[in-house]
Amino acid sequence: LIWGSFSDAVGRRVPFLIIGGLLSAALWPFALMTASPGTFVLLMTVKFAFYSMTLPTFTALIADVTEPDERTRETVRINTWSTVGAALATSLVAAVHLMGLNGYLVGFAVAMVAELASALVLLGFREQRVAKRWPSLSMVNEITANAPYFQFLLLNTLYILFMSIAWPLFTITVTRVAKLDLAVIAALNVVSDLASMAAMYAVSRAQLGLVKFVELQALSRVAFTAVPLAYGLVPNVPVLVAINVMTGLINPLVNTARTVYLLAVVPVEGRATYIAVANVLQGLSSFAGSMIGGLLVDALSGGSEDVASAMIPVYLLSAAGRLAFGLLHFRLAKYVR
Fold this sequence. Notes:
Layout: H1 2-10, H2 14-26, H3 28-33, H4 37-51, H5 54-65, H6 68-98, H7 103-120, H8 138-145, H9 147-164, H10 167-177, H11 182-206, H12 210-223, H13 226-233, H14 237-265, H15 271-301, H16 307-328
Helix pairs in contact: 1-15, 2-4, 2-5, 2-7, 5-15, 6-7, 6-11, 6-14, 9-15, 9-16, 10-16, 11-14, 12-14, 12-16, 13-14, 13-16, 15-16
């Protein structure tokens, strides 16, 4: 929220992208060298504080340099290449691990190089200055009066809350219930990334409009209901492969639809601040949901070894919330027709 407001106040995006990327990348070596869990968490906290400089400013930059009629197409193109990069990085780490080398070291190195490259490539970028907008309390009234934006904030925050309830459980399921090793987990991620590339390629060819993206986002969020059900009730490898293919197909659609919808409904002045507000609420919601999910499992398990049974009610709670608030996302289509 702070970085988005600063970006709007000075009317610039690129300096925040460069500085945030460089500072974030610089912390990877220190995180790799530490053996203390507490120090690692602290370093990651600082790192993501720097990295958060890039999130609202990059989304705002997309809108600054594209015309409204081409914005959806360019957002799809950017997300497609992001998906390709993620798939290549995951595949590299999996291959290195299978060869008996240190996959963690390679993963950290790839992340650092990618962040450095993304920052340095912008050094020669000439951006157009946008109208300056200093943050003020009047923006609170503007946000609540902007029905398309405010409705999205409410629905997205509540959806992510229920969605993230299951997140800490996934790791427990794949490691303690399904007992998968790192190579299999990496393979599942590769399968998901390949499905994402296929989905983004199909979307780029289809040239969907904004309304279709909003409807596709709602349908995709409803489909995510199947994920906690699969992990909770049938956590075997074939089912997990199928679920990872499904999530790989719909994840980039949700991310793309979220971006194009926000850019369509937020005002030009204060654009980065509006996007930052949405990001902050989503982050707080996911933090709260993850905490709730972990605490519920601890309470239901009562210290016993039968964690699998304790996770089922929590998975069902997450599934119910995903279904309910996923269906409500169909209401957003009326704002962009």
